[in-house]
Design brief:
The structure holds two protein chains of two kinds. By secondary structure, chain A is of the alpha+beta class. Chain A is 29% helix and 23% strand. Chain A has two domains: 59 residues; 58 residues, Alkylmercury lyase (Bactericidal permeability-increasing protein, domain 1, Super Roll), CATH 3.15.10.60. Chain A is built from four helices and nine strands; from the N terminus they run αααβββββαββββ. In chain A, strands 1-2-3-5-4-6-7-8 form an eight-stranded antiparallel beta sheet, with helices on one face. The relative contact order of chain B is 0.13. Chain B has three helices and two strands; from the N terminus they run βαβαα. Chain B has a domain of 47 residues. By secondary structure, chain B is mainly alpha-helical.
Chain lengths: 159, 71
Amino acid sequence: MPGTGTRLAGPVRALMDDRDIQIRNHVYRRFVELGRAPTFAELEAELGDEVRPALCRLHDAHALVLEPDRTEIRMANPFSAVPTPYRVEAEGRSWYGNCAWDAFGIPAALHVDGHVSSACPDCGEPIEIDIRDERPFPDEHVFHVVVPAAHWWDDIVFT
Amino acid sequence: MHLFRSEEHVGRWLEQQGYTAGATINAEKLCDLAHAWWSDRLAPDWRPHARDQNQAILERLGLTGQFWQLP
C-alpha cells in the first residue's frame, strides 16, 4: 500500500493480476508463519525475479505497503513489519498491528482468539485486552480516529 | 488510530497533540469493524475489497456521515 506517496509516483495505480495476488498471498502466509515480514531477499529466493515488480504493483494497489526507499515490506495490513504500540499474541505467536484497528484485525484474520497489549497514548497506562469469540474483554476502552476516511491513504503510516 | 482508556483520555490527548477531534467508537464496535474488515485477509481466494464493499461495512456498523466517507 503506497502510504507515503513518495516511492512510486505513477499517476494511475497499476492493476494487480492473478500472479500478483498469488505473490501477495505468499507474503501473508510467510508473515503469519514467521511472526515478522519476509525480507525481499527471502521472497526473491522463494519466488524469483518476478517478486520486485509484483511487490511494486501490490504497493501501488494498496495490497501491501513497502518502505519508502526500498523494496522491503512495511505493512501487510493488519500486520506491521516494524514494532508498534500494538502487540498481538495468538496461538503462541506474536505480531505487531499497525494501529488499534489492525491489532484487533489480527485475531480476526487468523480466525482465532488473541490478546492485544498496548498503552493509553494519553497517560501511558497499560491496556491489555483479550479477544475471545470476536468480543473484547474488558470492553471499556475507546478507539479514536483522527484522520477522516477520505484521507487515510494520503499518509497511511501516520493514519 | 489509537486505543484509549476513556473518552476523557482521548480529549486530553487531542489537546496535547493539537489535533482536531475525529471519531471515537467503543471497543465492541472496533471488534465488529475489525472482523468485518479483516476476516478474509488470509483467505486463499482473497480478492481486494472494492471501495463500495468497504463503505458498506462502515455503514452497516453505523459509521456514516462525511467523516467515514471513503474516497
